[in-house]
Design brief:
Blueprint (H helix, E strand, L loop, with lengths): L4 E5 L4 E5 L4 H9 L3 E2 L13 H7 L6 H4 L6 E7 L5 E3 L12 H5 L8 E8 L1 E2 L3 E9 L2 H14 L4 E5 L1 H10 L2 H14 L3 H14 L9 E9 L2 H17 L3 E3 L2 H8 L15 E4 L2 E3 L1 H17 L1 H7 L2 E9 L3 E10 L5 H6 L2 H6 L7 H20 L19 H14 L13
Bound molecules: flavin-adenine dinucleotide.
Flavin-adenine dinucleotide binds next to helix 2 and strand 6.
Length: about 425
Amino acid sequence: SMDRILEINETDMTVTVEAGCTWAALYEALRAKGLRTPFWGTLSGLQATIGGGMSQNCVFWGSGRYGTAAQSCIAMEVVLADGTILNTGAKFTRPYGPDLTGIFLADTGSLGMKANITLRLVPEAEAHGYASFSFETHDDTLAALGEIERSGVSTECFGFDPSLNAIRMKRDSLTSDAKALGKMMKKQGSVWGAIKEGAKVVAAGRDFMDEAKFSLHVLTEARTQAAADDDLEHARKLALANGATETENTIPKIVRANPFGPLNSMLGPEGQRWAPVHGLLPHSRAVACYDAIKTLFAHHQDEMDALGIFTGTLVSGVSGSGAIIEPCLYWPDASNPLHRDTVEDAHLAKLPQLDANPEAWAFAQKMKQALVDLFYEQGAAHLQIGRTYRYRDSLDPAADALLVHLKKSLDPRGLMNPGSLGL
Ligand SMILES: Cc1cc2nc3c(=O)[nH]c(=O)nc-3n(C[C@H](O)[C@H](O)[C@H](O)COP(=O)(O)OP(=O)(O)OC[C@H]3O[C@@H](n4cnc5c(N)ncnc54)[C@H](O)[C@@H]3O)c2cc1C
């Protein structure tokens, strides 16, 4: 399955893995040495691979400080369509000359098959800070998120709209939260801390978050606790200056305690289907884009209500880029074998089994396409371009010609992931 870690080079601070290695496996192996990659995985990292991450480009762990997955890559060994093995560059620095590594990053597999990947290493953080806030509006939430991203103090900064808050609350049980926290504290060697933190979550109950509002969660990291706290204090000032109320910091603690949890959020709280659609916007255009999404949903509210379709929106900061806005569509429909394979059996057993619902499915697809077009009009960029997002429409003619030329040169018979990137 090509999932080995080939070399951890502690002198040059690089790690080389086979493309099928998961983020979770790499994280565990590096943690034992006090090391980490700068971007260190998606929330799906229990199963998502580093090859997939380099091909899709992705965000989450570390993105508030280090940007997207592709930005942590130094070099790759790629197998071309005709079997040629191509090394993209020096295995300790990037770029050396024109960025040949970059050509294959975020290509959604359309230019070649990644075999080995070399990533940068950084020391694993020794101290952490966590804070949560609630806001009345998305404008304030995005303003705070933008200021926190620009200040560089947080390693992860993400937020949920009121609907997504409610969905999360429905899905996750209190006991699993307390257990996750206990596990984290034990890992850090503090049994007493584990009991205290677990008890705090139980005491705060389900009321630690004002579900009716927007939430924003901020994580900081540093070599010392004083530094992590100082970064957190700075983020707190920025949030409060934008109208935030501070709430219990349970969510960021829980998520960090189990960074690569089971992929149960693939289905909605009552077993609904889930389709996340996202855009990456510069901060200057994030609010306008969010407004446009709200207008789109409001316009179709009656039809969505009639079909049992609902939405929930996630936002997060990406260092040096801006804000991800990710509206998720949920609709009542049957699950498929991929869901049944991926979601934990115990979780699946608790969910209602829904019947196939072609009408709701068709409307959800229509809404998905409307969001794709909306993001295009708003000038968003995307991860996971695949066959979904309008990447080629966004290129000027000269850039598009170069892309087509590259594809022809690397894969003349169009064998590699045909249709992806619109090629
Ligand atoms: C519950 C859940 C949570 C998620 N959380 C996040 C998140 O936090 N952040 C985020 O960005 N995304 C997230 N995702 C989306 C998804 O997990 C990511 O896009 C992830 O990077 C996919 O990795 P994979 O290994 O599963 O790739 P796959 O889905 O198997 O492949 C993705 C694409 O890459 C290509 N590819 C894969 N490996 C190679 C290779 N070796 N060479 C060439 N091409 C290759 C495939 O052909 C395909 O086009 C989430 C998904 C789920 C279901």
